[in-house]
Amino acid sequence: MSEPIYKVGDKVKVVKYGSLFYCPNISPYNEIKFPIYEKDDKTIVYDKANYLVSKEGIVIKVQVTQDRPAYGLHLDNGDNYWFDEEQLTANSN
Question: Which CATH number fits the domain 1-16+53-93, given the four candidates 3.40.50.1440, 2.30.30.390, 3.40.980.10, 3.40.50.150?
């Protein structure tokens, strides 16, 4: 089992993406107005919550599902969201 690297109470920062949305690279999906995170001939990956990148927060819940840790965060904007480890970095502030 993968051990979570963050614990409840840790300060973290969102550094990668907010919430990804995978679509086939065909019309009408290739006309969606979210920022593009990745794109190839077959797939477009949109980030429908890129405004969360650079937000800081406190870990309020840790959950491991299918050997992958996930973190419930209370962000500095006052909202709560779930993130994977790859989206976060420790915040020393």
Answer: 2.30.30.390
Of the candidates 85, 90, 91, the one whose C-alpha atom is nearest the C-alpha of residue 17 is: 85
**Domain parsing of the chain, residue ranges:** 1-16+53-93, 18-51
47: number of Cβ within 10 Å: 19
- 83: buried, middle or exposed (CB in 10 Å: 19+, 13-18, 0-12)? buried
Q: What angle do CA 4, 9, 11 make, to 5 degrees?
A: 85
Helix (H/G/I), strand (E/B), else coil: 51 = helix
Task: Answer whether the bond into residue 4 is a cis peptide, omega within 30°.
Answer: no
Q: What is the pTM of this model?
A: 0.80
37-77 pLDDT per residue, tens: 999 999 999 999 999 999 999 999 999 988 999 999 999 88
